[in-house]
């Protein structure tokens, strides 16, 4: 009897173990099931490279190029801001800060990670947007730049903690060897520690990009949501994620618009899949070498 | 310039970058407290919204978020812990295990709005749950699963290997060893990770947009098949969808959500310190 129960429990454990694979496959199947219906009426090239997103005009136009460019612009801006700052902060926390300060800084960054994205979106609307509006004399502060700054901030905990981990896991004797040769702490950091931690840094950048490109609510609230091809970072833009969030509520189930939003979901799923595999590859390379 | 001066400049730049990141965090917390605290009152927390959400309280949204968090816990904790037990205690190093690990990494990286689409496709439409607490909880649970699996697995692998060997040598089976030796020693780590995962689920908006969230529903949900208001979505509605909402109500709502999330985080970090002190191995 006991054996029987134990066998049952172990079956359940195995099923839970493979559940993650099942869910990834299910997500992809359901996105495909709804999203691919779009391509009976629209050709995939027109979808990906069409310059007009007019989903409810007659006839509707489902070109997502402006949305792709919106996502890329906001993401690029966020990474340009977040990577240098995050790298510097991670080095400071891991190598320079005294212990008492290190604990405070790490709690601060954990605190930032805990703030929900909707809250940061709200803060962006009430503080950052008016600030940018006055600074650049714009009709509205809700722009790609506002999105980039907010997203850089949101990606920071991911970037800082992964880089810090990889700096801390550089073998101690690398550092001691360098210091013993008479190098200063700073020379040791940028000549020895950073090269040794480079895989972790790359992984952090990839995961940061993943976090930024998939972020939805804050972006929806502060980028101004204009589905046009952006020409400047001081313009309102609309991202892939924000489009789904803003329009799915009004899209009629089974309409072209509904299918098109799922098709955007397929694109996002594939992007995040590639980014996460790359990040895992970098992290794995680090482990094998260490 | 000599190397010592260079080092000083470099360290000053690093400090500056760190300050640029940390200052806004402090600023946000202070801003929320200063603007949000005056809005908090018994009527605000336990009252129903009135006048198209421009007055009254946010009780239905608070209750909705509590139900969703509880629902997420019910669905994600058992499967998350069992999955971690499989990976850490049973799985061989082979292609299947590698596949599961990659799947977990990908689940953790899928954009939250894509979970929303998935929940809409599977739970709301295909399984016919409609927009409901059930559909929303299931969607959030799948999103939380990778966090719980990863944390539990770390807690399990921190239990020294010779604990298991002693148990095996006494004739215990693998499951008996897991149940009576490994799990009791891993509970603190599992709890910490689980609470952090749930606190994230409580603050999520995108996955609940189409699976449960009600724009305006001034009553408490009656069953798991009901729609419900939820704090994150309510913040979105108050700050972008309804004109002329007083700043006080907006900040008050944001503060309540942030406090709920922070209390969960604080609980997790207290648990962690408490058990770390007691740990003898």
Radius of gyration over C-alpha positions of chain A, nearest whole angstrom: 23 Å
The quaternary state of the protein chains shown equals heterodimer
Q: Could you name the CATH class of chain A? A: Mainly Alpha
In spatial order, strands of the major sheet of chain B run 1-2
Kindly state the mean pLDDT of chain A as a whole number?
92
Structural class of chain B: mainly alpha
| Biggest sheet, spatial arrangement of strands of chain A | 1-2
Description:
The complex is a heterodimer of chains A (290) and B (281). With 290 residues, chain A is mainly alpha-helical. Chain A has helices at 2-35, 44-49, 65-96, 99-114, 117-136, 144-168, 172-180, 185-196, 198-214, 217-222, 240-247, 256-289, and strands at residues 53-54, 61-62. Chain A has a single domain, classed as MetI-like (MetI-like fold), CATH 1.10.3720.10. In chain A, 76% of the residues lie in helices and 1% in strands. A two-stranded antiparallel ribbon of chain A has the order 1-2. Chain A starts with a helix and ends with a helix. With 281 residues, chain B is mostly helical. Chain B has helices at 3-36, 42-46, 59-90, 95-109, 112-126, 133-157, 161-169, 174-203, 231-241, 247-278; strands at 49-50, 55-56. A two-stranded antiparallel sheet of chain B has the order 1-2. In chain B, helix 4 crosses helix 6, helix 6 crosses helix 8 (174-203) and helix 9 runs antiparallel to helix 10 (247-278). Chain B is globular.
């Amino acid at each position: 009897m006991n054996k029987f129960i134990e066998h049952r429990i172990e079956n359940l454990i195995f099923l839970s173990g493979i559940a993650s694979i099942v869910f990834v496959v299910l997500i992809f199947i359901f996105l495909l099931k709804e999203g691919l219906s779009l391509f009976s009426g629209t050709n995939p090239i027109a979808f990906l490279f069409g310059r007009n997103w007019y989903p409810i005009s007659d006839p509707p136009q489902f070109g997502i190029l402006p949305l792709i460019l919106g996502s890329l612009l906001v993401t690029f801006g966020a990474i340009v801001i977040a990577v240098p700052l995050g790298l510097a902060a991670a080095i400071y926390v891991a190598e320079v800060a005294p212990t008492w300060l290190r604990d405070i800084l790490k709690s601060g960054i954990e605190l930032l990670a805990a703030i929900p994205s909707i809250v940061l979106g709200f803060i962006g609307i009430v503080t950052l947007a008016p600030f940018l509006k006055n600074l650049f004399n714009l009709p509205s502060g809700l722009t790609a730049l506002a999105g980039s700054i907010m997203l850089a901030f949101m990606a920071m905990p991911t970037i800082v903690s992964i880089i810090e981990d990889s700096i801390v896991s550089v073998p101690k004797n690398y550092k001691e060897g360098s210091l013993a040769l008479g190098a200063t702490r700073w020379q040791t950091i940028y000549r020895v520690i950073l090269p040794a931690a480079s895989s972790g840094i790359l992984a952090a950048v990839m995961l940061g990009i993943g976090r930024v490109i998939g972020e939805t609510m804050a972006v929806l609230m502060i980028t101004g949501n204009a589905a046009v091809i952006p020409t400047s970072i001081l313009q309102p833009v609309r991202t892939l994620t924000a489009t789904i969030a803003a329009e799915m509520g009004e899209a009629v189930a089974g309409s072209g618009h509904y299918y098109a939003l799922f098709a955007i979901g397929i694109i996002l799923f594939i992007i995040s899949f590639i980014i996460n595999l790359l990040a895992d590859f970098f992290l794995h390379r680090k482990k094998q070498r260490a | 310039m000599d190397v010592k001066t260079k080092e000083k400049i470099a360290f000053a730049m690093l400090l500056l970058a760190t300050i640029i990141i940390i200052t806004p965090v402090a600023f946000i917390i202070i801003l929320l407290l200063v603007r949000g605290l005056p809005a908090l009152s018994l009527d605000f927390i336990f009252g129903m919204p009135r006048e198209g959400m421009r007055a009254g309280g946010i009780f239905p949204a608070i209750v909705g978020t509590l139900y969703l968090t509880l629902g997420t816990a019910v669905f994600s904790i058992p499967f998350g812990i069992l999955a971690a037990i499989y990976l850490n205690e049973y799985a061989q190093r082979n292609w299947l295990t590698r596949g599961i690990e990659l799947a977990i990494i990908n689940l953790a990286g899928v954009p939250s709005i894509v979970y929303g689409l998935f929940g809409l496709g599977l739970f709301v439409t295909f399984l016919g749950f409609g927009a409901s607490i059930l559909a929303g909880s299931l969607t959030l649970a799948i999103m939380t699963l990778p966090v719980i699996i990863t944390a539990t697995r770390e807690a399990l692998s921190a239990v020294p290997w010779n604990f298991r060997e002693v148990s095996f040598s006494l004739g215990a089976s693998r499951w008996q060893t897991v149940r009576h030796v490994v799990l009791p020693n891993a509970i603190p780590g599992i709890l910490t990770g689980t609470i952090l995962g749930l606190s994230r689920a409580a603050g999520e908006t995108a996955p609940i947009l189409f699976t449960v969230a009600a724009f305006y529903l001034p009553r408490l949900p009656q069953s798991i098949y009901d729609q419900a208001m939820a704090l994150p979505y309510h913040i979105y509605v108050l700050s972008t969808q309804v004109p002329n909402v007083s700043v006080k109500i907006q900040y008050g709502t944001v503060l309540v959500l942030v406090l709920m999330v922070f209390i969960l985080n604080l609980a997790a970090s207290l648990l962690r310190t408490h058990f770390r002190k007691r740990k003898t191995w």
